[in-house]
Amino acid sequence: MTVKPREELANLPDYQEGKPFELACAEKGILSVTRLCFNENPMGMSPLAMQAIVDMAGKADRYPDTFIYELREKIAAKERARGVSAVTRENVFVSNGSDEMINLLGKTFLSTGDEAIIADPTFPQFETTIVSMGAKAVKVPVDGAFQHDLAAMLGAVTEKTKMIFLCNPNNPTGTYLKKQAIADFLAQVPKHILVVMDVAYCEYAQGEAGYDQGDDYVLKQKNLIVLRTFSKVYSLAGLRIGYAIAPMEILGQMQKVREPFNVNIIAQAAAAAALDDVSHVAKTLANNQQGKAYLHEAFREMGLDFVPTAANFILVKIGAPSKEAEKALLDLGVAVKAGAPYGLEGYLRVTIGKPSDNERFIAALKQVLAK
Ligand SMILES: Cc1ncc(COP(=O)(O)O)c(C=O)c1O
Predict the structure, then answer these.
(1) Total count of domains within the chain
(2) Separation of 301 CA from ligand 1 center, angstroms?
(3) pLDDT, tens only, 332-348
(4) Cα–Cα distance between 118 and 291 in angstroms, integer?
(5) Closest Cα to atom 16 of ligand 1
(6) Which letter does DSSP use for residue 178 in this model?
(7) Which of 123, 129, 199, 236 has most ligand 1 atoms within 8 Å of its beta carbon, as the pocket-test mutant?
(8) CB of 276 within 8 A of CB of 43?
(9) What pTM value is reported for the model?
(10) How far is the CA of 357 from the centre of ligand 1 (A)?
(11) I need a labelling partner for 238 at 20 to 30 A (CA). Which of 99, 184, 302, 322 fits?
(12) 345, 99, 293, 181: CA torsion to nearest 10
């Protein structure tokens, strides 16, 4: 007789063992791999964050601050300086990456039989969490412009709905929601339903017409939580740290299921330093703008349709089987994401890299598509 897991896990795919693609490539003699598959920051770490890591390394014999006090103070002060006036430390929750936050949201608010509404396609971690809690992921297809179909998402609300996830900009489409559309949506969502707005790529979208990361509603709207991460513009993906802003009533419930030392001391220190490094953020955004323009133009020249992006990645239609293209590109040392697992066969999602990364990708894509 085998030990039985919770019944709900039967609805999740089996774990697939693998190896780092750098290792797989090295085994084939490909020694340099351009990583354009995880929407990481190609500019490397902020020197201020790097120094904070060095300074903190000798203190790793101690547990981290369970209250994550200083970082939460700093995030709240930064939000107030941005004009989100009411944010205090108690409105800030820090987690081991946004992935942990999404998990904690599931643990806190979802039970068997509940429903949670998500866009299709969107960030896969939403569905994994919903299903792992025994709830149903109600998937609402994006519209013809790859935007969240907010009207259809509202139409999918039932008496079982506990949560609605908005991803703004959306991964993997790169599309974003505008201020008025969000306002109209929030006004119509029943107040007992928690709206989770994941704005992991918000810094990249700042310049887009009408973009809104929830500043006007956060805290005023009692059923809204906004998720942010240090993995993207702040380049700390490997340290695993993200945060949420929400009313205390929501965060207090989530605190009950948080591990006491969920964020390590090095991540706490590096994140605080990264927040100060405005020049690193500015360089990152400038590189992204330039890379976006280059890739958009290259796709136009190649006659490939793409979804104009508000983030640091682009969804491009290659019109060929995406898994095969992903593999062929990796054989040329370029790692990208196939669209197929998102239900986007014929598409690739490529992270915007440095100029040399983007050029290598375009050259490799031309070679793959010419076959
Ligand atoms: C929309 C979205 N949310 C959250 C995450 C994960 O963030 P973290 O690295 O903080 O877990 C990602 C990562 O790609 C993402 O695309």
Answers:
(1) 2
(2) 31
(3) 999 999 999 999 999 99
(4) 30
(5) 171
(6) B
(7) 123
(8) no
(9) 0.97
(10) 22
(11) 322
(12) 90
